[in-house]
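#lab-general

N.A. 3:47 PM
ok so I finally got the sequence cleaned up, no stray characters, all 213 residues accounted for. can someone with queue access submit it? mine expired

B.Y. 3:52 PM
send it over

N.A. 3:53 PM
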Amino acid sequence: MTMPDSPGAIESYQEGTPAPSPVGRIPARLVVAAGRGDQAAFEELYKRTHRAVYSAVRTMVRSEEDALELTQDTYLDAWRSLPSLRSPAAFRTWLFRIAANKARDHRKRRLLSIDSLEERQEGGNGGEPVDPREGPPEVLVAGERRRRVQEAMEGLTEEHRAVISLFYGAGLGVTEVAGALGVPRGTVLSRLARARDALRKRLLPYLEDRDEV
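B.Y. 4:20 PM
back already:
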């Protein structure tokens, strides 16, 4: 299955200034048609959701290249598995659950590779230690405010970045975020509260600086 306008559509978003729009209500007819093998219907689903999916994954994995690849993998899996989706109304939650699982699995593999590298270094190869973090990611959208928010997001835990991205970026409801992440609704509410508090503390110096201007 070849994704429409991809990866160009995602890349063009990265170069632009607007943030991704939250995913709106998905017509059940599109989901049903796509589940029956209608590629045009699936392409429409892709066009309506891919920027929000990319944005969510990008926040979780931090790497632009990895996020592009994982977004593509998300839609390939969705295309293959869509016939088994029982409720068209659950499409948004189902899709973001696939994306979240992809990002989570990717991070686990990356951590394992980092641990393996560190073990080899501790064995005494005589080289300089390798920093696996690769520095801060590129800013997704222009503007000082968005840059500051992105930097603040980098300081959050993976769990907190995920709920912020899905709730505010993708526009999912609390129940949908819970379904996408496979955690109780109360856990999402708790993580959202803690993530907002952490972001507020990280952004406070910036906000105070602007008040002094």
